Each structure stands twice: as C-alpha cells, then as structure tokens.
C-alpha cells in the first residue's frame, strides 16, 4: 500500500482553539482524519506527525526522503506553520531529499502580516496550497496521488 506523510509544524496542535476566525474550528485530529479518509480512496495510508520542534520536522522530512527512495512513500503534505518564514534548515532538508513536498497553509498568508509573505519552503516545494482552509490538505493529497 502507498503511504504519504502529513506533516504539521508549530502551533498546529492548537487548531480549533487558536484564532478560530483565522484557522477555523476543526482540530488537528479532524484534519488528520479527513486526510486519512481521502487517501484511503486512493488506496493510500497516511502517517501524521506534528511537532513544535524544528529538528523533529527535519528528521521527519529526512525519513520521508528515505522512504520515497525505497518506494514506500509517495510524498509529503507539509504545513510548516511559522517555520515557513524562518527556517532555512527546513528548506535545506527538503532540497536535500528526493520526495515531493506540497506546502499547505490554512490561511492566506499573503493577506496577513508582511513577515508572512516570504516562504523559505515554496522554492523547494512541488506545489503550494494557500488560503483554502483545511481543504488545502485534501487538495495537496489529490495532487500527490492523482496519476
């Protein structure tokens, strides 16, 4: 069975309670369950991982790269949260492995504070989904799994 990683960065564990006017009322567990249901339609298993720690996210990208090379993983759906705008290390991790990564943001980061307008992830991502709410995860999954 194919596998894909849904990776979430800092503060996404607070979905449903953190700024619901910006991020909605769905929890991270809701998002993960929706991802699993959609991927199952493609006969694909979803592994979900969230961390507030940059190094753990880098390790998860490295692992996904190894699994992609081994034919075990088809890609990564990644909402890096605030690390989008600060992490050259995550940029380098994605660039350093051979796995397609789709960057996802629930809110329209370009309609928010100026510091959110730059992404270190976009230049090394296979694609980006921005401002589509939690539906963006599903769009990213469809992109990775549609043949």
UniProtKB/TrEMBL annotation:
Pathway: Metabolic intermediate biosynthesis; chorismate biosynthesis; chorismate from D-erythrose 4-phosphate and phosphoenolpyruvate: step 3/7. SUPFAM superfamilies: Type II 3-dehydroquinate dehydratase. The keyword Disulfide bond does not apply. Substrate binds at residues 79, 85, 92, 106-107, 116. The keyword Amino-acid biosynthesis applies. Its EC number is 4.2.1.10. CDD domains: DHQase_II. It catalyses: 3-dehydroquinate = 3-dehydroshikimate + H2O. The active site is at 23 (proton acceptor), 105 (proton donor). Homododecamer. Catalyzes a trans-dehydration via an enolate intermediate. Belongs to the type-II 3-dehydroquinase family. This is 3-dehydroquinate dehydratase. It comes from Vibrio coralliirubri. The lineage of its organism: Bacteria, Pseudomonadati, Pseudomonadota, Gammaproteobacteria, Vibrionales.
């Amino acid at each position: 069975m194919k596998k894909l990683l849904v990776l979430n960065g800092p503060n996404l564990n607070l979905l449903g309670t953190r700024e619901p006017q910006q991020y909605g009322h769905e929890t991270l567990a809701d998002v993960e369950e929706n991802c699993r249901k959609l991927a199952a339609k493609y006969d694909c298993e979803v592994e979900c991982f969230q961390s507030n720690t940059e190094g753990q996210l880098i390790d998860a990208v490295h692992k996904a790269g190894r699994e992609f090379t081994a034919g075990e993983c088809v890609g990564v759906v990644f909402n890096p949260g605030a690390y989008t705008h600060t992490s050259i290390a995550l940029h380098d991790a994605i660039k350093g492995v051979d796995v397609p990564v789709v960057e996802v943001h629930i809110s329209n980061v370009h309609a928010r504070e100026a510091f959110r307008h730059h992404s270190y992830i976009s230049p090394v991502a296979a694609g980006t989904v921005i401002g589509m709410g939690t539906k963006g995860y599903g769009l990213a999954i469809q992109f990775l799994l549609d043949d």
